Amino acid sequence: MVEVRPADELPPGRVPLALTSTPTKRGKPPRHFADLAPEEQVAAVTELGEKPFRAKQLATHYYSHLSVDAAEMTDLPQASRDALVAGLFPPLLTPVRTLEADAGTTVKTLWHLYDGVKVESVLMRYPGRATLCVSSQAGCGMACPFCATGQLGLTRNLSTAEVVEQVRSAARSLADGEIAGGPGRLSNVVFMGMGEPLANYRTVLNAVRRFVAPAPEGLGISARNVTVSTVGLVPAMRRLAGEGIPVTLALSLHAPDDELRNELVPINTRWSVDETLDAARGYFEVTGRRVSIEYALIKDMNDHAWRADLLGEKLTARGRGWVHVNPIPLNPTPGSIWTASEREVEDEFVARLRGHGIPTTVRDTRGSDIDGACGQLAAEETP
Question: Is residue 120 annotated as part of the catalytic site, yes or no?
Fold first, then answer.
């Protein structure tokens, strides 16, 4: 058994949540340019015998041109570019399988990392925007029973560069016109792929900093277009509020009562619904950013009208204007007992929430025909 903690130490008296997987001991991924802050990039290029200004040239190629190809770095001498690419851009992700849906505007990729570990990302193109759903861990230790990734258990945390490379690769595919709809720009990133982002706090924050930094030090994505999800690691939620980066916080709640949430989201046995909602409200108070409540609607499990009323009451008790609810029709996994709610039940759930004055939007689901739930492709390849 292995314990995964959020970024902060557990409060006194809290019992660590035992997880259901034993990660294999693995080495660290090789150092990559995206792991490095600007001052570290300068140090790295000088270690390789190059002038300090080469760091900015590399940053421009990586973050502005989205390139790791030495042949494209024509403003560097041939010998320098080969040495720098070999030393600072090791291949971290290899695409193993790519599936398309929605006339090619939804693309799901299964990646093998440098050590053979599997993760997934999903690129979704909409009119006026393109969103990438990224993974922050290989597998997940939160053990939510309706989640394909949760049933895989935790293998390991991803490095900063392994996260950033998912985003750079998607941005390059869009820029090159490889996604249906012609050349475009990646506008949004959501940490809703494999893993619990706040259980890999340092990596996620470092990656977010790379996303939002202006070119050539980063990808120049608006912080408001970056969403960090969590099942409710309360100390890490509070810490995130103080980072000074106004990302959107998405709380995967899935039940408004402790009895059911203890079953659906086992971390709730450590931090209750009320503690979690208080932390979410606190995030809004510090950042001014409205919090999203994610609620997977599961047939005959959490979709009762009285639960919608209870959720509405708990949210309004903490004020108005601070929260938005996204009910999500469950994307079932093969062989699972969990399935999506009936449409009329979904409609009633939404109506009840809106009746409490809670802004509510049913999340558009994509990729159900390509094993769209995160973890499904990885699970298929697990021996």
Answer: yes
Count structural domains, the chain: 2
CA atoms within 13 A on the CB side of 211: 35
Based on the domain organization, do 118 and 179 belong to the same domain? yes
Domain that includes residue 110, residue range: 93-380
Q: Is 133 annotated as a binding residue?
A: no
Residues 245 and 375 in one domain: yes
Q: Is 140 annotated as a binding residue?
A: yes
Report the residue count for the chain: 383
244 and 209: one domain? yes
pTM of this structure? 0.90
- Does any domain span residue 298? yes
Gap between the Cα atoms of 289 and 138, Å rounded: 29
Position 119, amino acid: V
Angle at CA 374, nearest 5°, toward 63 and 256? 110
Q: Is 254 annotated as a binding residue?
A: yes
More confident residue, 368 or 125: 125
Determine, yes or no, domain membership for 247: yes
For residue 27, what pLDDT band results from cuts at 50, 70 and 90? confident
Active site residue 374: yes
List 294, 348, 374, 380, catalytic entry: 374
195 is in an annotated binding site: yes
Closest Cα partner for 283 from 291, 274, 295, 294? 291
Instruction: Write down the catalytic residue from 9, 47, 120, 313.
Output: 120
Whether the predicted pLDDT of 61 surpasses 50: yes
Does some domain include residue 24? no
Tell me the DSSP string of 142-206: S--TT-HHHHH-EEEEPPHHHHHHHHHHHHHHHHTT-STTSS----EEEE-SSS-GGGGHHHHHH
